[in-house]
Structure formats: structure tokens, C-alpha cells
């Protein structure tokens, strides 16, 4: 088995056997779980439709590698709430109720496995409002340190604006996401389509800027998860009515 596969076996839940996972949980080695959520949807004419979930998985796995062996990454929810993109064939979308049900069941399963520190790391804007609307109820139901954050929210604005000519982020398939793709998976960027389409903002993107922002996001998300584990980043569970 290659070194990279060994590493994946350590950070990805689905690479474990039941014995391997059980023994790591029983030893106390695993401290936190990241559940990536995103979408499969149109990203203008020039970016592959996997962009959101591929991006959030990259951040999640790099964070888990950085904090190894204490963090595990659950399988990504790579279909999101994308009704606003459904006029573009190929976009996949789940209705909010069914999507939130699967997400809650994933969180509940990880809690039952032994995790009290769970970060749902988001990579798609359409997932935000439904999650924020339900999050307090999720926290009340489970009474654990359960967080929801979009990865770009942890990128300091000054870092983004210094590296983005348009000064706008995250946008949708524009400079920020295109720079991310150019740095992380350039094969997903169709250069001819980027020049031909109506929206020209993606042409401002560079791989160099993308890498700077990716590195900063990984550092910030890592700090966020460390705080969850060491008790300095704990959620306040909404009060119950008496």
C-alpha cells in the first residue's frame, strides 16, 4: 500500500474497517469529525460541476492531515440544495427537508460512534440558510459541540481582498472559485470557455492567488478544529424552554 493510501486510511472514515475504527475510538485517539457538505451543480461554462464538493473535501482532508491522528473525515454529501441552478441541465438538487434529514442522520451516526466534537464544513451557498434555520434544534437534540461553517468564512477578508483583483468572494465560479480550481485541480478549468462566456470575472483568477488563499483557509480551519477539541471553541446550545 502506498504512503498516500496509508494516509487516506487514517483520515477517511470509509477507508477504515470496523475493527480499525473501533480500536481508534476506544483508544481515545480520534477527537473530532468533519462532515463536508457541498453540491454538484453548474459552475458557469468553464468550471466542472464537481467544484463545490471537491473544494470542501480538499480543505477537510488537508485539515485532517494537519491534525493527524485526531481528526477523521466522513463521506462528503456531494448533492446540495441547488434549486436556483436547476435551469442548467446536469445540476443535481435535493429539497431542504430531505437534505437536512440525511445530514442530521449523518451527524447522529457520528455522535453515536463516539464523537462530541463535529464540524459540518460547507462548500455551497445554497446549503447555508436551511442549516442556519435548523442548527439550534440539531444542537438541542444532540447536546454536543456541533458546528456549521462555510470554509470561506474562515478566510480573513484582508487575505482575500489582497489576492483577488475583483475583491469579491466567494461568488459563484468567478475569480475566487476559479483561482481555487487553478491551484488545486487545474484540469477542471476550461480555458476556452472562460474566454468565450459572458461573465469575464474568472479571467482575473490566478493559481498563485488561489494557493495562497487555500493555504490560509487550511490553517484557519485547522485552528478552528483545534479550538473545538481543546475546549476554547465550544457552541452555546440554545436554552430549552422550562
UniProtKB/TrEMBL annotation:
Gene Ontology BP annotations: riboflavin biosynthetic process
Keyword annotations from UniProtKB, A to Z: Hydrolase, Metal-binding, Zinc
InterPro entries registered for this protein in UniProt: Creatininase-like_sf (IPR024087), Creatininase/forma_Hydrolase (IPR003785)
Cofactor(s) in the UniProt record: Zn(2+)
GO MF annotations, alphabetized: creatininase activity; hydrolase activity, acting on carbon-nitrogen (but not peptide) bonds, in linear amides; metal ion binding
Family: Belongs to the creatininase superfamily.
Protein name as catalogued: Creatinine amidohydrolase
Pfam families cross-referenced by the UniProt entry: Creatininase (PF02633)
Record lineage: Bacteria, Pseudomonadati, Planctomycetota, Planctomycetia, Planctomycetales
Coiled-coil portions: none
EC number: 3.5.2.10
